[in-house]
Structures are given as C-alpha cells and as structure tokens.
Amino acid sequence: LAAGLFNENPIAFALGIRDTEYDVRCCQGIEYERTAAFEIIAKSGRSGVVMDAHAAWTAATLDILDLIFSLLGPIYIPQSGRDDLLAFRGFDEFHTAPTMTLVHRNGETYRQEHTPEAIEARNQYVSQQLEKIEKSCAVVPAIAPNQLSALEDMILEKCGDRVMDAIFLCTGDRILISDD
Q1: Contact predicate 45/173, CB 8 Å
Q2: Which residues in the chain land under pLDDT 70?
Q3: What are the pLDDT digits (tens) for 99-112?
Q4: Which of 165, 118, 172, 160 is nearest to 141 (CA)?
Q5: By C-alpha distance, which of 141, 149, 158, 169 is closest to 4?
Q6: CA 96 to CA 49: how far, in whole Å?
Q7: Which residues of 8-27 are buried (b: 16+ CB within 10 A; e: fewer)?
C-alpha cells in the first residue's frame, strides 16, 4: 500500500526503506491474532496461498518458496505482481558511464556510486530471484469484483488500481501472504 501511495515499485520501495539504515521493527500480533491465523492455516488444508510482489520477493530471497508450497499448497501471484518484479529488474540501468545518487541520512548527505559492474551484479541477483518465483508460483490475472465496498474504492483510488490484485485472487480457501 505504501508503495502505491507514492507510485513506486514495491520492491524498490522496500529496499529503499531497508537502505535507510534505521532499525525496522515489526510486530508478531497479539496472542489471539496469532491463534486465529494458525486456525485459518489449519482450516485451509493445502488450498494454496496468494502472495503480493513484496511477499514473493521476500520468500525468494529467504529461499523458502519450497517450504511454503510444502506446507500450504500452490502459490499464486497476480500478473501485476510479476509485472512489478519484472519492472524492478533493470529499473536503475544507466548508461555506460558511472553515475551516482545522493542519499540523505541522519542530517548527513552520502554519495552512492553506480558502476556498470554493480548494476550488472544487482540485475543478476534480481534475475535469480525472479527465476525462483516463476518456477514456484502460478502467475494469474486478477479480476476485481463488479461491486466494491467504499473502503476498497478508496484504497484503489489512493494507492493505484493494482494494489488489491493479490486480495482479489484469494478465492476459496486460499490464504493471503502480504507484507502490507
């Protein structure tokens, strides 16, 4: 959702947060939320899971897509999520001359150089993760329902028309795995 608000690629946005060098904190939910989540997983059997682009990317980099498949069944990602991942590969390709960006952290400005070698290494890494995702996940188009709630309309208006595609794929007993 946050990437959608800023019209950014979700993976680039997440890596940008990571690169700020601040501690990233997350919650595990309170006891009854975790219990409810485990009950949903148990009830779904192995009906499958749907992942958004960032969740699929995270699972690929952690090398746990096979584990998720073995525990939860088939893994689905929306076509728009795959498109985001493909757009991420090479989004920062520059010309043959080295380039740089300035990053501002904690009141100081740092220079980051982007050499052709560093860009090529990054693109190879991204390609490896994409191969894992494409091997392990079914890429399917998402179809929005004809009638949306006021909340769904507002989210789509504020965050972009593809931000809920993973949710729209959660049919049957599929479980949504999302970093949002």
Answers
A1: yes
A2: 1-28, 89-98, 156, 159-162, 180
A3: 777 777 778 887 77
A4: 165
A5: 158
A6: 41
A7: ebbbebbeeeeeeeeeeeee
With CA atoms as reference, report the closest residue to 54 among 162, 153, 170: 162
Positive or negative, the CA dihedral 114, 116, 119, 125 is negative
By residue count, the chain amounts to 180
3-state SS string over the chain? CHHHHCCCCHHHHHHHHHCCCCCCCCCCCCHHHHHHHHHHHHHHCCCCEEECHHHHHHHHHCCCHHHHHHHHCCEEEEHHHHHHHHHHCCCCCCCCCCEEEEEEECCEEEEEEECHHHHHHHHHHHHHHHHHHHHHEEEECCCCCCCCCHHHHHHHHHHCCCCCHHHHCCCCCCEEECCC
Query: Is the Cα torsion angle 61, 64, 68, 70 positive or negative in sign?
Result: positive
Helix axes 79-88 and 53-61, enclosed angle (nearest 10): 60
